[in-house]
Every structure is written in C-alpha cells, then in structure tokens.
C-alpha cells in the first residue's frame, strides 16, 4: 500500500457491527442453531474468497464474532488490502458452533460488500497507473456504513474525500444558485471559515473555473467535463489549485480522464454500485 492502512477505531466499528447483529438476531437470537446444535458443540470454520478480488472488512467480521462470544478464537489468514485469488482463506474462527453460525451472515455481509468496494476501487486505481491522478470516493454511501466503505476505498488503494458535511467545504451548483453566484458564495465561506478547513468549488465551465481560481479556492471540482475541456482546465489552472474530475467515471473512461493531468478523479459508483465479492464460511 502507498500509505498506512488504518482500521477504523474499534469504538466506531463496534457500534456498526453491533447494530447489524441486533438486526439479524432480533428478539430471540438464532433459534435454528440453538435448536439444532447442543450448547457445548465446538467447530472450526474458514471464511474463503470464492472469487478473486481485493479484501476489506475482515476487522468487521472479527468484531462480529468477538461481540457474540468473547471466547471465540479468530485468526486472520489474509489482511485487509490484500488482493487474493479465488479459494484463498481469509479468516478462521474456532469455538462455539452456535456462536459461529449466529455471526456467519453478518460477517459475510461485511466482508462481501466491503471487498466489493475495495475491488471496484482497485480496478480504477490500476487503470490510472502511471498518471498523477488519484481515485477518490464521495458521500454516495449506504447510510450507516460510511466509515467502513471509506475504509474499503483505502483498502483498494483509493483516497477519501470528505467524510461528511462538517469536515470540508464543497460549494456545489445549488449553493451557487442560491447564493447568487460563485463569488458571493466563496466570499461568505472565507469570511466565516476556520483556517484549517479546505474550500472546494464545483464548476461546469471554464468561465466558472476562472472565477473560482481568482478567488483563491483550494480545489476545483470539474463536473462532467469531456477530456478536451479537462485539458484546457488544467492549462488554465497552471497549478494554482488542485483539480478534481467528476462524472462519467468508468473503467472505460477513467484512463482518458487521468491523462488530462487532473489531480483527483472522484467516483460514487465505487461505493454505491460496487458488486459484492463472493465469499463463504465453510465448516
């Protein structure tokens, strides 16, 4: 990995995983396993990737098993951020068969979904190798899963955009319309903003880009611009601000976008539309 991969703090991880377990276990717990299996029966199970991909979510799976039964022994056979082949063991868990089965689906849901996000991100990251462009995510995340999905983006080699509305200013088209233009919107932000917070403005024309640059913003989001216009934007910018390209980002288009010279390429699809990676828990 080109940067340290930090797992989300357990305090945040536990909250999300516990909610998932509560949703699945309901009011009476796993009545199937409790009736089928003796209370003392023990088992060993291995979480396996059935398809090749980049892995994320093992920390969430481990947390699910530990929250259910602190005596379960969980060992990681792979690491978040690893790219693996089909059939690769990812995690092994030993202990109460009832507890393992009760946590199975929650663990698989987290690993399958988050590995899908990481795999989709990795595909875009690999497609722009050799350029300076970095792939970033957006706020288009599943409610309640943003921390984990943004972590999965990092597992795939991508970079996080702002986590929420409170950690960065992004003046979008509706802000501009409501404020009466880019200039009044930016001026109001600079008048009330702390010096530690970055300011980004979304533009859809070179004329708007020029206005934003003259106002001294940190980053400009170039919305739905074709590669030819993106190249013009890079020339006009002349290194004054960081440039982020957004819109129509696919595996087929991302390389051409990156070769225009932009600094960042943002994709909502890597979180909101990433297909699950097929994983299974085998006893």
From TrEMBL:
Described function: Involved in the catabolism of quinolinic acid (QA).
Species assigned in the record: Rhizomicrobium electricum
Taxonomic superkingdom: Bacteria
Encoding gene (name): nadC
The protein's annotated pathway: Cofactor biosynthesis; NAD(+) biosynthesis; nicotinate D-ribonucleotide from quinolinate: step 1/1
Pfam families attached to this UniProt entry: QRPTase_C, QRPTase_N
Family affiliation: Belongs to the NadC/ModD family.
InterPro entries linked to this entry: Aldolase_TIM, NadC, NadC/ModD, Nicotinate_pribotase-like_C, Quinolinate_PRibosylTase_N_sf, Quinolinate_PRibosylTrfase_C, Quinolinate_PRibosylTrfase_N
Domain Quinolinate phosphoribosyl transferase N-terminal: 30-115
Tagged with keyword Nuclease: no
Record bears the keyword Transferase: yes
Gene3D superfamilies for this protein: Aldolase class I (3.20.20.70), Quinolinate phosphoribosyl transferase, N-terminal domain (3.90.1170.20)
Keywords: Glycosyltransferase, Pyridine nucleotide biosynthesis, Transferase
Protein name: nicotinate-nucleotide diphosphorylase (carboxylating)
Enzyme Commission no: 2.4.2.19
Domain Quinolinate phosphoribosyl transferase C-terminal: 117-282
